[in-house]
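Let us work through a complete example step by step.
Step 1: write down the sequence.
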Amino acid sequence: MGFVVTTHDLARTVDDEAGVEVPVLALVQHGQDHMHRVKTGKRGDLVEKGALLSWPRASPGIVGAAHDIEILRQADQVCVTRAGLFQQSQGGVLHLLMRDIITDGRRLNGTNVNRSAHGVLFQTIRRTGLLQRTDAGGSGAMLRFSSVGHHRLETFLCARRIHTSQTSPLDLTSLQEQTKPMGTVDYVVVFLYAIAMVWLALVASRRSKGTDAYFAAGHALPWWMAAISHHVSGYSAVVFVGFAGKAASAGLSMWMLFSVPCFIAMMIGAKLWAPRWSRLKVLTPVQYLEERYGLSVRIAVALSGIGVKFIDLGIKLYAIAIVVQVSTGWERTPIIIVGGVVTCLYVLIGGLWATVLTDLVQFAVQFFLSIIVVTAVLAAVGGWGSMWDQLPEANSQLFNPDAGLPIEFWFVYLIVVVFSYNGGTWGLAQRFIAVGDARDTQKAALLSGALFLVYPLVIFVPAWSAPLLMPEFFDPITAAPIAGFDPDQTYVLVAKQILQSMAPGLLGLLVCSMFAATMSMIDSDINSLAAVFTKDVWERGHKQPLTDAQLTTVGRLATLAFGTAVLGAALAVDGSAGIGKVFSKTVQLFAAILPPVAIPLMFGMLFKRATVRGALGALVGGFAAFAILKNIYPDSFAIYTGGEMIVASIIFFGDGFLSRRTPEKEAEVEALFERIEGRPS
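Step 2: predict the structure and record it as tokens.
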């Protein structure tokens, strides 16, 4: 027995022998009513929303087998975003169906929807596989055709997104099995790229004689190289893995979270901090703290930053392991070990110059490949506007609370990024320190900021399109990854499918460039950690002066030790439970590490009244506040990070306004500010 559901008592009789008369307009447009009147062979039956109603055979005008209709809670403005092959019919049913499902004749997936005298003719759309899922509830009305001839059609999704209702279990086929592994040409490309990187390291080693050259490129880094290196070092495979994975469900708000804060941070930094770093003429960001506050603050900040940085770098090394694993099918653990060893040896040989040269090469390669991928992706989904039309409405919003990225999250994260990208992350401060002229440093900051605003768009477009290109891995209503799928693999899978279809070797080149990006970021931080340990801990702990050769040796040994610690942290992250770990762990560590360390470091250049007691108090109080608030509000980034910053700031600035310094210290601070502000003494 078949059923027809309508509203407002507009029931129709279903007669299996005579055929089916379907009032689709009432079904789709008025499905929000609490109850639906159902007419069967027996009169007057009522059915709750959510009941599954089906026709046992094909309806007139539709070529194929049975189809199902599920009535859900809101059938409001429905459209097709996934389909296969439809044929126009003169029977009327199909035309009613298509008129109500496809609204306003808009362009979907590159196929024009044309109206005719009989309704809507929907032509062929590219297929990407059948979404198999069992999930009741949600909003909208769902119509599924299980087969049409030899074609299997995908789920129809309404404009406000609906849950599907298929009985087949979700097939979580591994990403490695969905596309071919890297081929011989790809491995040749990887080998040649590795040879080129070794050559660059050897070239750089000739310019890295002595601690000044090894840690600060001799303060002779051209501003444009510093800008590109700063930009590239500001992201790694973490962006392609963790941030891109989050972007698939969060949409445009992810660009707002990552790119816009970086741009704002660099515009501020170009005025306040970049030229000051250059004028300090130091080898490490922490080195000036002794002159500013005293030896105790210098050592405390150095040890605090070193102690917690390993986990952050371990996450970045883990992220590149995901890239290589998806591309090759290899196990993550050996990838992490090999990647850690290669990264450590590279910076051990070449110092900061080697890292900068790698940045330039991988930026050029990555930009070339990203343009290829984003062009192909936009063509596949029908363009920029069509992509957003097919995604949930929240995905096109700059702030997406549904994805856990409300405006308060963004504001707190913005402050953290301002600290980080202007020197709170020591590896980024090294880029400014390495530039000899203050004005050149400002130009470097401005160029880096402009790149942050534009370039991440080509990274996030493939991730934003992933729910359309790989619907089997995302919820059709929210675009959130379904249970069992690791969103960290999103970007790499999309890029892999596209690049493999174009030319051999491109996938290998992508793996190389992303590995180089991560290696650059890790190298930068390991180099800065080794510099801080050598100059701010080891040298200051010796009463007898050390020669430059001795300090260089200590720096290389520290590099080796820190690289080993990062490798251990990456293996620990790999062994931890859960999927989608990269974004959440990176953001949490960012919050825990930066504010307490960055406040005395960054504002020590701006706030003359700051004291040693305020600096140490901010360090201790900030970490304590984070530990307490994270335990009470474990899921509220805005609370535990914002609270940490408020506590550290109150202690730092409050003590500065309340305390008095000796005349001798006043004179020392004034002399320091004359130097970093570029005033004549």
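Step 3: interpret the result. The radius of gyration is 30 Å.
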